[in-house]
Structure formats: structure tokens, C-alpha cells
Write a sequence for this structure.
């Protein structure tokens, strides 16, 4: 059975917690689907994880379409959410619709995610009117890293908490089907989760959100440049990969591989 945006609302109604993981390519998307994670986010974090940039800002629409299409081929039963990259939706509503449309038509995504609250409500509403399902993203919004002065925790004082709630409510009112709360205190995320009708998805926002999202390369120990404080590593695949490659190098050097029979 394929996951749809309606499932997230049903899970919230039933109090059933759910998960999202990122994927950027066919092979990893297949593994995420095999692990029965129902929703895949093709995050613009691919800028750091796949392309080696120091932020998400250089990621282009072409990057997102290409990676989204690969993920969609690998996980046909998952709900695929594709991030709209920096400046693909901020310039005008028309450009936002055209770019979101590319992620759906050429990328095979089922929905798009964009960052921003009250300031992006008009764009979200226009996308929803164009029948494009939208996931919001408030709190720490990495595309605004220079405006925010770094990747610090948001909504730490009462003004910030009021803003977070107002942003999340604006996203809901504009028609988004869910909203990511990134790097905000757990108690604040709990209050937003209680107030909203749409599901909240926490990313460094504590245990009281309806769903949780993390970067797959982080939880598998595959990305070593940095590790956000809220990430739990469930495996050390980076180390396993290095060990395997070193074993191959050593066996070739020692004449152990390939075997004489030509396997
Ligand atoms: O780009 C991304 O991977 C994200 C999540 C971590 C929320 O936006």
C-alpha cells in the first residue's frame, strides 16, 4: 500500500507516531522503503551530504529534480516529499508554482516542502490552490542561516515562541498537510503540536511531535563532517565501508583477490 498525505493526518488523529528519513538516490531510497519508513524527504541537505557544500544555499532546482527522480524510482510505495531549494519559491508565486510543478512532474515527488511561516503563507496557499501538496518547515530554517546568524536553537524566549506558533498556524491556515519543527525546545514543540490540527514533524524538537525526521546519512554514521547534537547514530556504516575498502586494497596488494580460478 502506498503512503499518502492523508495517512499522516490519520496517524495524528490516532496518536500513532511516524517517521521520515532523507534519501537522495535510488539505492538508499530502496533501503529506506525496505525498512518500512513510510515517508522519504529528498532534503536540500543533499547540498552538504551529496555535493559537499557547506550549506544548502547553492542547491539548484536541477539538483533537486535529478535526485528526486532517482528516489521516486527506488521507493514507489513511499510518500516522496521534495525540498524546494533556496530562491526557487521566494521570488514570486508564479515561479514557486512552476518550480514545485517540476518536482512533481519531472521528479515524481508527491509533495514539496518549503521553509518559512507567515512570510510564506501566500506561496503555500497558491501551491495548494494549484493542487500541489505542501509540507511547511519552521523554527530553524537552514536556508535563512545568514539571517538567523547560524544554526542555533530557535524559539528560546517568549517572543520567539509566539513567532513559532504564529508561523506554524499560518502554514496550517495556508493549507499545508504537515509542518517540520526544526531545532526548537521540546516543550514549545509540544505546545505547537497540541495547538495544530495538522501533524508536526520534529527535527531536534524533542519527543512530543507527531512524527520525527532525521538525515539518513547521520543516523547510519555515513556523514562525518559534523553531527547535529540531536542526532542518534544507529550504525557506524562509514567505518564499516572504510574497513571493507581497505580489506579490498590489502587483498589485491597481497594477491589474495581475485582468486586464481577467476571468480
Ligand atoms: O534538508 C533536510 O534534510 C531537511 C530536514 C533535516 C528537515 O530539511
Amino acid at each position: 500500500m502506498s503512503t499518502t498525505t492523508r495517512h499522516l493526518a490519520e496517524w495524528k488523529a490516532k496518536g500513532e507516531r511516524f517517521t521520515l528519513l532523507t534519501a537522495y538516490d535510488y539505492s538508499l531510497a530502496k533501503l529506506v522503503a525496505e525498512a518500512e519508513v513510510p515517508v522519504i524527504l529528498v532534503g536540500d541537505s543533499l547540498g552538504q551530504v551529496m555535493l559537499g557544500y557547506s550549506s544548502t544555499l547553492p542547491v539548484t532546482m536541477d539538483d533537486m529534480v535529478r535526485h528526486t527522480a532517482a528516489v521516486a524510482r527506488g521507493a514507489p510505495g513511499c510518500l516522496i516529499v521534495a525540498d524546494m531549494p533556496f530562491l526557487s519559491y521566494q521570488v514570486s508565486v508564479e515561479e514557486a508554482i512552476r518550480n514545485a510543478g517540476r518536482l512533481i512532474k519531472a521528479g515524481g515527488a508527491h509533495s514539496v516542502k518549503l521553509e518559512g511561516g507567515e512570510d510564506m503563507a501566500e506561496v503555500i496557499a497558491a501551491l495548494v490552490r494549484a493542487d500541489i501538496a505542501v509540507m511547511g518547515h519552521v523554527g530553524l530554517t537552514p536556508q535563512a542561516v545568514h539571517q538567523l546568524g547560524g544554526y542555533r536553537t530557535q524559539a528560546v524566549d517568549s517572543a520567539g515562541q509566539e513567532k513559532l506558533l504564529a508561523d506554524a498556524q499560518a502554514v496550517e491556515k495556508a493549507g499545508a498537510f504537515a509542518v517540520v519543527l526544526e531545532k526548537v525546545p521540546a516543550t514549545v514543540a509540544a505546545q505547537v503540536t497540541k495547538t495544530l490540527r495538522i501533524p508536526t514533524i520534529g527535527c531536534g524538537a524533542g519527543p512530543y511531535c507527531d512524527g520525527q525526521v532525521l538525515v539518513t546519512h547521520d543516523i547510519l554514521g555515513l556523514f562525518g563532517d559534523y553531527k547535529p547534537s540531536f542526532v542518534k547514530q544507529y550504525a557506524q556504516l562509514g567505518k564499516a565501508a572504510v574497513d571493507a575498502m581497505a580489506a579490498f586494497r590489502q587483498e589485491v596488494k597481497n594477491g589474495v583477490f581475485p582468486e586464481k580460478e577467476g571468480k
